Request: fold
Amino acid sequence: MLLGDKPKLIAAFSTLLACGSVYGEWGYNLPQGVTEVSRSIYDLHMTIFWICVVIGVVVFGVMFWSMLMHRKSLGAKPAAFHENTLIEIIWTAIPFLILVSMAVPATQTLIQVYDTKESDIDIQITGYQWKWHYKYLADDVGFFSNLSTPKAEIANEEPKGDHYLLEVDEPMVVPVNKKIRFLITANDVIHSWWVPDLAVKKDAIPGFINEAWTRIEEPGIYRGQCAELCGKDHGFMPIVVEAKSAEDYQAWLVAKKEAAAKERELRDKVWTSEELYSRGEKVYIKTCAACHQANGEGVPPVFPAIKGSKIAVGEPQKHIEVVVNGVQGTAMQAFGKQLSEVDIAAVITYQRNAWGNNTGDQVVPMDIVKFNEAGQ
Amino acid sequence: MSAVIDDHTHTADDHHHGPAKGFMRWVLTTNHKDIGTMYLWFSFAMFLTGGLMAMVIRSELFQPGLQIVDPEFFNQMTTLHGLIMVFGAVMPAFVGLANWMVPMMIGAPDMAMPRMNNWSFWILPFAFFILISSLFMEGGAPNFGWTFYAPLSTTYAPPSVTFFILSVHMMGISSIMGAINIIATILNLRAPGMTMMKMPLFVWTWLITAFLLIAVMPVLAGVVTMMLMDIHFGTSFFNAGGGGDPVLFQHVFWFFGHPEVYIMILPAFGAVSAIIPTFSRKPLFGYTSMVYATASIAFLSFIVWAHHMFTVGMPLTGELFFMYATMLIAVPTGVKVFNWVTTMYRGALTFETPMLFAIAFVILFTIGGFSGLMLAIAPSDFQYHDTYFVVAHFHYVLVPGAIFGIYAGIYYWLPKWTGHMYDELLGKTHFWLSFIGMNLAFFPMHFVGLAGMPRRIPDYALQFANFNMISSVGAFLFGATQLLFLFIVIKTIMSGKKATPQVWEGAEGLEWSLPSPPPYHTFSTPPDIK
Ligand code: HEM
Ligand SMILES: [Cu+2]
Reply:
């Protein structure tokens, strides 16, 4: 549970203390954002904030006045009043009126937030432990989005990049000035999809589909994070949305489709063990290592080890079944729907041969296709 | 019957009748003062334990990157920290104050059910022993936050979750027994002439709190039982795959959870309503409206639970209802704050330690109330929810609200309990260091929250680094300062100037008519109420 490396820690602390604000930024307020809704919310936030400030100044003003002027040490003589019905009614009524004046703009904004009708593009967002899947419903395009910050930066072994923890391998790409509707759900536990600049935060709940929408006005890259505790890597589940012009978006979509077609061709290719192993290693690091750890030892008892596990050195068929269908009632997901046949075959081959699991087995994409066709 | 006969044979040497000696005195005691003392010590031990966990959290968050603990352990720390602070530190401290003060304030000889009182206390150490021991179990302690949302806490939790459920049940039983006892005491054992509307506000707030406890602890028991069934008996209350509903968990949890946050503040309102008049040398302004405001807050607390769930995808009408209802709570809360300020207005103020804590309570709790009002605004809540803004908000109500309220009460009544004055200089030092540390720790959390830092994360983006470092420094200062309090209390028990019965110049109420320290059996004959 404790991470070692005290000297590195001390070094890090002392650089930090020496340069004061090495990290420069002092962001202290909500972003105004890049959509109409985000600006409405920002305005609402500032309005309520200033009302609170004014009330605070009045109340604390009276209080400090009393503390300064009515001290016993200044010879203050206490008054004896302890009731005044009129005053007590007034300070029930005035706050009530202030609240009504807050409720009106809040209601308007809320109605705006809830207006998900007539969208131009629908994207289904699915939360997984610990990554997001984006599916463009009209275009048959779908992909996962994983944290891309290197482990070494997180472990303080390398200097941290500008977008530390807020960067992904594949961002969600959307066109500007289009109404985009998000259909948000989850595969395992509850997550929450949040991008402050868009002012969208909606829980991703297994068994439910929530709706949200946005219309982004400026091209740019907008970053956010999962906002619901979803397990150990909750802090490592960023969201990146790239808003592009209509043409750039189309170009991206075409490229994406072509890449998917290429990927499908790979299925029928003849694979060597080495190819499968090295591809499998990449898939493993990206998809499996979050739970089973890079060294295959897992975090028992919640995340079992792969190294030396019965399934990984036993019958290949059983191994395929676990990976494709998952294990009900545990954190082991059904990867059959998440990964291509190639990736599944590769990662199984890798697991059966890494860390001293020297089965010498090779599972090829066709094995997975057959497994699926057998309808298991 | 035998009790009555016993009493008769003892009347002659009643004044010799003190506490038994030794260890068994504490195990078997049915005396409200002994039990109150045990609750308070237990609560302080839990406060330090939960605080230690907060220090682990803040050390990890001192700078970006993972340095001290891994994410898995970090989640266990936040979860245990939250659970221990809520159920182990704040609630038992209030029960301790109630045990000590309620009988003395209403002129009763003891609590109504002294043996049950002993049980309510002794269940607690076992409950927390079980909870904390889960740290050493395979798979570690609960790691799903003090709100333990399903399905993270059912399908994906470590095996120790079953012990967690057992321990929550035990805490619940203890709270319900304590609450029944307090209600019975207040309703039945008041001295003749002590009408309801003459009761001190501390007694009133505790009466209302006790009703809240009885109403909601069974709901908590229900939700953990449903979890237990899902985990071990194949039901699907919260499992969408089996036809269940993960959002149901949140509705049930927050139907308990929201009143729970008032359970953690109402008795502090009561204590402060005794302290401010004393050191202002002026009667409390608007006693009647204070009672009604407290009752309204308690009532409203039952119809606002879903404001913790604005982002789960409720229908628009649901969001609007819960938004309006939540905003309404600001009205009675405002009445209370205005009344405290008006009590100070044109008084003759002195600033002994209890008063300092009480004033800080009013100011900082109000600030926490402001951020609460902001959170009530549903569309803005989409931006605040589950960020550090929320962590800042609830620590501004819990630390100055609950904890400062408790400290104010302890300093206020400590001379009464021990018969000795505490060291005023040390008390004030404790206050100022706590005040500075607390603000340094929690104010910057508003900033990082608004700027976009989610809560419950062990590592964060670089833009949050500066404020997090300040927060951690403040937290270490606050944490270390609490050891000074331990020293002050021990010093007061061992030595210190003798306290008069009245103790404070402006103090009013039955408890001050007793000697300091009060006799082992309070009010064996009912006092006269003017
Ligand atoms: C020195 C004092 C304290 C410090 C430095 C501190 C710090 C923290 C921090 C950093 C978190 C984690 C936030 C997150 O990651 O989401 C937290 C959570 C929490 N704290 Fe404290 N805290 C302190 C005292 C208290 C007290 C006195 C209470 C209650 C009376 C309390 C109740 C909670 C609760 C309920 C949570 C939420 C736990 C969860 O996320 O499940 N804390 N605290
Ligand atoms: Cu998540």
Remarks:
- The radius of gyration of chain B is 23 Å.
- Confidence is low (pLDDT under 50) at residues 1-16 of chain B.
